[in-house]
Structures
1.
Amino acid sequence: MSQELYHSQVQQTAFHARAAAACRTNEWGRWAGFTTVTCYDNVELEYFAIRNSTTLFDLSPMMKYRVSGKDAEAYLNRLVTRDVGKLKPGRVAYVVWCDEAGHVLDDGTLFRFSRTDFRLCAQERHLVWLTASALGFDVVVEDVSEEVAALALQGPTSCAVLKNLGFEGIENLRPFGLEERAFGGGKLTISRTGFTGDLGYEIWLPPTLAEPLWDALMAAGHDHDIRPIGSAALDLARIEAGFIAANVDFMAADQVVRRNRGRSPLELGLAWLVDFEKGHFNGRRALLREAKEGSRTLLVGLDIEGNKPANGALVYYNKRREVGHITSAMWSPTAKKNIALAVIKNPYGATITDNLWVEIYVLKELKWDKLMARCRLVERPFYDPPRRKAVPALDF
């Protein structure tokens, strides 16, 4: 791995050659210092592939930190809000970690390989924070982001594709489970995780096996209409799943200019990830105080009338009082609803739940029209197919 914490130029992932060959639109973006595809061919086709067949998404830019040593569990329990002691080897958990004000620094997945060996995956760079937090613990924190390539295989036929590749018995892998498999003269790790809210897997492997794996999956999935997808289609699927994204639905606490712009797990609807009984952790005192006094804001799911997405819209009470704003929005082709995630001020969304409206501006041939659309609070996820959690996973 490069000894530099930050690179001076945009890097290419181990899958870049295959992604570039498949990217007909030449639409690229940046993620954690790497160049990634926004759209390969057509966003709508890629979205429908997630819900009806099998898709590939290059996860390699995700930051990956190995945490190992005698105090690895104790260190991680001090860092994240949920009880790491309940996470068994061979399992994955969704976690968040906070600063001392109880504001979320990031969310991600925590892999437990053994009693003393973990991997923490996150969207943002956190090596400095993780290293500083390790003071006093017998633990080693290493940035292994460039040593581990990753590919998300998502969609209702994803299990069938893995079985076609020769991974027999993979249908018995439980959600948030992981197992090691032989491939191409080496080994890779398959976890039943993903960011689409559908049946799917994430595959973690050495960069030397990246291109052979891509080719093998494309061949194994040919009859299932497998296709690579970009970040634009993935974003639509994650909104339907009700998943939040850092610096979209909340600002990372170490990146805000105004301290009150940070958000706590309680404000983000992640109270189920906060275990006050496990002992002290970063932000515990602030979160206990918030649990007693109430949260400033709430992140809620909205079902909005009409079919015009409410991206960037304001939320009003009784059409007059501004009470919040939309963070993510879309017309959901699968749920057949106009859905959104919104941050609104307490007590709206808690005790005041009626007479909420969204102010939507729609561009029609260079003319902006304003719509006031009624909305109602709904539970997340907006779309949750039974196949997502079924064991054994079906072939469809």
Note: The first strand starts at residue 27 and ends at 31.
2.
Amino acid sequence: MNKTIFALPVVEQITPVISYRQLDELALIVVDHPKVKASVALQGAHLLSWKPAGEDDVLWLSSNTPFKTGVALRGGVPVCWPWFGPAAQKGLPSHGFARNQAWHLKAHDESGEGVVLTFELESNDETRALWPHEFTLYARFKLGKTCEIELEAHGEFETTAALHSYFHVGDIAGVKVSGLGNRYIDKVKDAEEGVLNDGVQIFPDRTDRVYLDPEGCSVIHDAALKRNITVIHGHNDNVVGWNPGPALSVSMGDMPDDGYKTFVCVETACVSQPQKASEEKPSRLSQTIRVAKQ
């Protein structure tokens, strides 16, 4: 899928390393820089790929997710906002509406080390029908040897949110994640509380856990690709660890049947406690990703 994105014809060359391209119904911003390759869909300000020079793709993107207007993309880093998970009210989209809305590129900058992109979403008639608040939401991506993501929400409201990152791994059977803390809510087992005794999460089957006391940094240890992905969390209360396992993977139309084998989600989140935004102080959620050989 990522090779497909970089082979797309250029619609507009914004700078020597930043271009607009189109994949089916969706407009993309593509970064082709000596230090980093990356792509972002304007729908959802959705980071699709990030690949520092000399590395394998760090993010996972489903090979059969549809690039259709208003349809959530499977993979990359979806922005879940202004709520995480199922909506309290029936008929509203799961994980909020920000990932299905058309954002616009507000600002861009580049240097010898990489590129910075800022996207903006403002309240509109469509969002007001789903959620009765005025807001301005920014998503900033600093893309280079590291990947820094920041979500910043302006207005007067409370939200839950997540940066729902899908990380590319060689084989989920050999993946361990550390730095999650001990206490968690197990969403596979009717939200019962559990304790991670040895501090390491593995993924033998479907796994969906909201960690309640996460450390500031989680590490994905990938035995198959012989690398570690470090995820530094900011302004969060929770980290979510998720993999659908074989049965759920087969049932998901936008994922290959064996898709679960090649990704793990380690999500920077505010789920157990809402975040408050005020006119004086915006709410934030941030994540910094680094990758290193083992």
Note: Residues 40 and 134 are 25 Å apart (CA to CA).
